[in-house]
Design a protein that fits this description.
By secondary structure, the protein is an alpha+beta fold. Helices cover 29% and strands 26% of the residues. A hairpin with a 2-residue loop joins strand 9 and strand 10. The chain is globular, with a radius of gyration of 19 Å.
Length: 289
Amino acid sequence: MKSCALLSMDSLQDFECYDSLVIEPLKKLGWNSREVSWREQQVDWNEFDAVIIRSPWDYQDHSEAFLKVLSKIDQSNARLLNGLDLVKWNISKNYLKQLEEYGVLIVPTLWGTSYTDEFLLHAFEQFATEKLIIKPCISANADDTYRLNKNDGQLNQLQLETRFNNRQFMLQPFMSAIIDEGEFSLFYFNGEYSHAILKKPKINDFRVQEEHGGQLISITPEKSLLSTAALVLQKIPFPTLYARLDFVRHHQQFALMEAELIEPSLYFNMDSGSPERFANAFVEHYQSY
């Protein structure tokens, strides 16, 4: 039997995680797997044949330390998936700029390096909107992600300066379609489509994560969404074992919100065949590189 680590965190108590659903399908294919925290100090990565990054959902505030651990894994006998080069490319949402240059429609975005009130007012004017979303370029779980209303002073200047002073961030018009319809997530294993869901926020919220009360619905994506996702996948510059592509409907098209290639929840609970598809894709991917 080969050995695989599912890279996680010290405690998933406050999160909804479904990675345990792939353990049995992997075992049937000759792989023993177990969850290992990326913060574990005593682990010998050479003991594993592969390390799959799955649920290290606290890395965003310690991204340099996280990348050092991944580099250590990459230098061991274990094969890191997704690969280190892909992680480095994807860890900052600046990758969206490159995808946009490649012809991918993204949510309209202004990029900032340090917060000022002037830049915020410029964004309201630029997008001709009364509501904005601000979030860090390195983020997860909707941490430090805020909906700003132009006139209500929901967050004052000091709060925003504290969160975003000397920190790369992005400003986007609030996409009301997330409330009206939801956010689409499509899942790909080794480049092949697996399943799709629609995520909707709870009433009076805009965050779609389960931890924030979001609701999940299994869907069959329409053809135009599948073709848009295929274009995005084609433009990603490195091979992927897994990819989650998040979209929102925008002017009768689908705009990419994020290409989640590091530690996305793959929602194995939403499609009964997805754990087995993932395990098969992993073995094929492992044997191909």
